[in-house]
User: What shape does this take?
Amino acid sequence: MESKKSLIVAIDGYSSCGKSTIAKDLAKELGYAFIDSGAMYRAVSYYFIENDIKATSKPENLNEILKGIHIHFANVDGINTIFLNDKALTSEIRSKAVSSIVSEVAAMSEVRAKLVALQQSYGATGGLVMDGRDIGTVVFPDADLKFFVTADIDVRSQRRFDEVKNTVNAITLDQVKENLSHRDHIDSTREDSPLTQAPDATIIDTTHHTRESQVEEVKTYVAKLLKGN
Assistant: This one.
């Protein structure tokens, strides 16, 4: 697929619905940059854990804490890798401990303000696919294309369980489902930038999609827009 215009594509949705897979594959197809905004909130959560900062309530010195957090992305052996204070993070941010607090950390307005500003800087020149929970509503409300990805909770739970069962010790499918439901609730009801479908976003239900078919569906909308341009 040839991109004649540097588009910004915003992909929002629930955990384990396939939005990151769609975003990565679409970015590769278009030759665009890909940013996993969720990884950024996970990196902050990892920092909280490593520095014994409680996430159950907002720390009084949160702004000072955030000054010590520096995040960037870089290509490492062909993989878009997130760095926290110059340390590459991979499986560390997908741990059970990080997953258990990431929604609480992401609900903190100061954290969101810092990361949203950074996310917006990535889109300054276009040519970007970004996935998350508030990309089409807050980060890039004027994105060229917006998608809202969803899937049945049981399907999402199985997908996440299959993804982490070999790396997270003694985790069960029920625990994964409970964690996803907990995160869905916090993400959808938080006061600052809740997870919600943008009015002009196209819904993609991946419940019965394969990886290939869900990407193909999104590509049809991108191709239509590019053809019009």
Observations:
- Residues 8-223 form a domain with the Rossmann fold fold (CATH 3.40.50.300).
- The first strand starts at residue 8 and ends at 13.
- The first helix runs from residue 19 to 30.
- The chain has a mean pLDDT of 92.
